[in-house]
Amino acid sequence: MYEGRTKDNIAFISNIDMDCSGQANATLYIPDDKAKPITLRMDTNKDGKTDAWILDEDRDGKWDISYWDTDFRRKPTSSASIPTGSSSRRGSRSISRSPDLAGPRASRPAGR
Predict the structure, then answer these.
(1) How many Å apart are CA 2 and CA 109, to the nearest integer?
(2) What is the distance between the terminal CA atoms of the chain, rounded to a whole angstrom?
């Protein structure tokens, strides 16, 4: 699994194999820009595409909100607030407008 800087050198990333499959299915993305959230992007259905985003919007080390692509069309269909950074889901709701979660792709720098 790769851990280091993004290709464009604007963030630190850590690719994670969450199910011991030998493939990265999650990426922790920590942008240098402190105004941008720390994001954990996950591929929950093993199709190689992100379908869950968990954000620490205020960068305090606690997750604030999550977005879920439940129909696997590459856009979030629901979201859930996460009270006090816990893992319990509260406030789950459908969303009418997709937030900008694309961001730079977490890719391995050339030559590594």
Answers:
(1) 9
(2) 12
**If you compute the radius of gyration of the chain from its CA atoms, what whole number of angstroms results?**
14
Task: Give SS3 for 53.
Answer: strand
Task: Identify each DSSP E strand in 1-112 by its residue range.
Answer: 3-5, 11-16, 26-31, 38-42, 52-56, 65-68, 78-81, 90-94
Q: 106 vs 16, 58, 71, CA distance in Å?
A: 11, 21, 23
Would you write out the chain's pLDDT as a tens digit for each of its 112 residues? 799 999 999 999 999 999 999 999 999 999 999 999 999 999 999 999 999 999 999 999 999 999 999 988 888 888 888 876 454 444 544 444 445 555 444 333 333 3
